[in-house]
Design a protein that fits this description.
heterodimer; A: alpha/beta; Rossmann fold; 5 domains; about 50% helix; globular; B: alpha+beta; Archaeosine Trna-guanine Transglycosylase, Chain: A, domain 4; 2 domains; 4-stranded antiparallel sheet; 8 helices; 11 strands; elongated; Nop2p (chain A)
Chain lengths: ~550, ~180
């Protein structure tokens, strides 16, 4: 005991030269990881004066990358997300596969009957947990679970515990119109159908024609008869059909939460992959929001889920949607899970993001997962068509840009970071200007945008107090057209949030109930796009005096 | 999605009545709304009219499947039922065959049912009668055609085939690529 403490206390930072020359064993690395963790736990006490914290962290990241065979990028992300002790738990848990779980198909059988039938076949199983009535966890089995007569007869579906969560959050009701946007292989889709008891209509869509076969097979096997299975591009779904009561968007992602299933994720994913994923996810989420009918009597909900743990693919995407559409976050209805981040490194997300849920291998013994439930409260889109198209274009370009960068990267000669930067910011406009780093550029743009919004907010200060009571309902209204670049738009300044929130809320109110002409004029000052101004005036005119009186009463209340 | 031609509709109902007899009526006259048969890329789908209407929003290329697939017409206009039709055939079946637990696996691999594997059989079934095959705990496993009538079955050798295999639920795995 004394020995080990001694050893740790005299942990000396390896010299650069000796480190490169010397081969170190995995055990030594493991020891060094422990040592550095200890040093970092009480940095003042254990540090060596001539080495900074970043040096220690870099060495630790390097060691962790070797020990767990991650690449530098992903490990860096994980180190940003977790405190050190939790990080170690997470990494350890990610190495072990999760227990095999099955979902009872309540359309055909009951969990108790299924358990009895499977136990007869020599399967050792238990109910999954108190939170689900259909899940079973399988400890061992003498027969292949994917080929028992019960499986073929559609009595159960093999799926991870985590994939039950988004459907539970979605909570579909009978006789609703529900869309599963990225449905392959149909596990979650059939779960939805079984909760709806084969009533209503379930739309299962997937863009991949090969994978859609699995959906058809699984739906038929499980006895889902109310489904329409289609092979559309998810991003174009609003052209096909809108007016859904609920939509489940289990977005395609980098899969950083399921490294136990697919270890190749640990070493292959890089920044560009993540970037491409979150751009696609944003596009899909906006489409999903557009497809939902806010006036639905029972629904109007969107559930967004990924099997990734990176905030870029989760909180960022939701935060983006909150700004671009009339949606707000609501509790997922799941009574466990870690709250989503509201702040991550230098980024600040909308405070209501704590209603979303994260799941980790080390805390919940299921794959890394993220679930967010959104409610759409208005069918209007808080931006002009031009802005919308610009957004679309931006996302499209971001996706294609990412691809082109990938293509470039395959050429080993052109791998330098400098060139990547150039790709993003072409010369011409920036020629001759000082080469600002990305952070500086972001700061500059943010200041510019802030200066505009701040000025407008002053005009609105007075009427705000009256409407404070409604704050809860309209907390997440977002109307400010974002002019920031794709890299900056999610970096909201801390002081920016409450102010913006109030002001936006005000705008939303005014859009609905133009109180007086003055207000409308004020509003038109705020809204920069001309077409919107016209619309508002027309709306005003169409309201009768009686309606206006009613509106006034509402506001007073 | 298009309506079945008269000729194809006739073939379909003849085939259906082989397995479920007069219960075909129950598929058409349902208390819970109108259901209909539709054809999409030679495959026959059985679906509620309400859902069918919604499916019209999709282009024919983009639409993969609506409701339940019953089977597929061959180029020579012969209808072959897929295992997916079992969902509707099983509850309405008039003639049934039960296989012993020891024979279950063999049947699920696509073998004909020998007398030795036969557990129970409905009375009065004639030769070439369409039947639905069940396991002894009443799990529908597939469907087929009797090779011998019920009375002949009783006197047959243990090794003789009593029921020809047509389709079984093992096909969900064995022929996922060709079925859908």
């Amino acid at each position: 005991m004394q020995m080990s403490i001694d050893h740790q206390e005299i942990f000396s930072f390896p010299d650069n030269d000796s480190e490169e020359n010397k081969e170190i064993t995995l055990q030594e690395i493991q020891q060094r990881i422990k040592d550095i963790t200890l040093v970092l736990s009480d940095f003042k006490k254990y540090r060596q004066e001539n080495h900074s914290r970043t040096e220690y962290l870099d060495l630790l990241r390097h060691d962790l990358c070797i020990y767990y065979s991650y690449n530098d990028f992903l490990m860096g992300k994980l180190m940003d997300m977790f405190p050190l002790t939790e990080l170690m738990e997470y990494l350890e848990a990610s190495e072990v596969p999760r227990p095999l779980t099955i979902r009872t198909n309540s359309l055909k059988t009951r969990r108790r009957d299924l358990a009895a039938a499977l136990i007869n076949r020599g399967v050792n199983l238990d109910p999954l947990g108190k939170w689900t009535k259909v899940g079973l966890v399988v400890y061992s089995s003498q027969v292949p679970l994917g080929a028992t007569p019960e499986y073929l007869a559609g009595h159960y579906m093999i799926q991870g515990a985590s994939s039950l969560l988004p459907v539970m959050a979605l909570a579909p009701q009978e006789n609703e119109r529900v869309l599963d946007m990225c449905s392959a292989p149909g596990g979650k889709g059939s779960h939805i159908a079984s909760i709806m008891k084969n009533t209503g209509v379930l739309f299962a869509n997937d863009a991949n024609r090969e994978r859609i076969k699995a959906v058809v097979a699984n739906f038929h096997r499980l006895g889902v008869i109310n489904a329409i299975i289609s092979c559309e591009d998810g991003c174009k779904f609003r052209n096909v059909m809108t007016g859904f009561d609920r939509i489940l968007l289990d977005a395609p992602c980098t899969g950083t939460g399921v490294v136990a299933k697919d270890p190749s994720v640990k070493s292959t994913k890089n920044e560009v992959d993540v970037q491409r994923c979150y751009n696609l996810q944003r596009k899909l989420l906006l489409t999903a929001i557009d497809c939902v009918d806010a006036k639905s009597k029972t629904g109007g909900y969107i559930v967004y889920s990924t099997c990734s743990v990176l905030p870029e693919e989760n909180e960022w995407v939701i935060d983006y949607a909150l700004k671009k559409r009339n949606v707000k976050l609501v509790p997922t209805g799941l009574d466990f899970g870690v709250e989503g981040f509201t702040k991550y490194r230098q980024y600040r997300f909308h405070p209501s993001l704590n209603l979303t849920r994260r799941y980790y291998p080390h805390t919940h013994n299921m794959d890394g997962f993220y679930v967010a439930k959104l409610k759409k409260f208005s069918n209007t889109i808080p931006m002009t068509k031009e802005q919308q198209e610009a957004d679309e274009k931006e996302l499209d370009e971001a996706i294609t840009n990412a691809e082109s960068v990938v293509n470039k990267n395959t050429d080993p000669m052109e791998k330098s970071v400098h060139e990547e930067n150039e790709l993003r910011r072409p010369l011409g406009k920036h020629a001759g200007k000082p080469n600002l780093s990305e952070v500086e550029i972001d700061l500059k743009k943010r200041k510019l945008v802030e200066s505009k919004t701040k000025y407008i907010a002053n005009e609105f200060e007075k009427p705000l107090k009256v409407q404070k009571k409604h704050k809860v309902d309209h907390k997440t209204v977002s109307l400010t057209p974002s002019k920031k670049s794709k890299n900056t738009e999610l970096k909201v300044n801390k002081s920016d949030i409450p102010q913006n929130g109030r002001e936006e809320e005000q705008q939303a109110k005014n859009l609905k109930v133009p109180k007086t002409k003055k207000m409308v004029e004020n509003l038109s000052n705020v809204l920069e796009g001309k077409p919107q101004r016209k619309e508002n005036k027309i709306k005003m005119k169409s309201k009768t005096i009686g309606q206006l009186k009613k509106d006034k009463k509402k506001i007073k209340n | 999605m298009k309506r079945l031609s008269d000729e194809r509709a006739k073939i379909l109902f003849e085939k259906l009545s082989k397995y479920i007899g007069t219960n075909v009526k129950q598929l058409i006259d349902r208390p819970d709304g109108t259901y209909c048969f539709r054809e999409h890329r030679d495959r026959v789908y059985y679906v509620s009219e309400r859902i069918l209407k919604l499916s019209e929003c999709f282009g024919p290329e983009k639409l993969v499947c609506v409701g339940t697939c019953f089977g597929k017409f061959s180029k020579t206009n012969k209808l072959k039922f897929h295992i997916t039709a079992l969902y509707y055939l099983a509850p309405y079946a008039q003639y049934k065959v039960w296989v012993k637990p020891s024979f279950e696996q063999q049947y699920l691999y696509g073998n004909h049912i020998a007398k030795s594997g036969l557990g129970r059989i409905t009375e009065n079934a004639g030769q070439y009668q369409g039947v639905v095959v069940y396991s002894m705990n009443d799990l529908p496993l597939g469907f087929g055609v009797l090779a011998r009538s019920t009375t002949e079955c009783k006197t047959a050798d243990p090794m003789t085939t009593v029921c020809f295999h047509q389709s079984d639920i093992g096909e969900y795995i064995r022929s996922e690529d060709t079925l859908f």
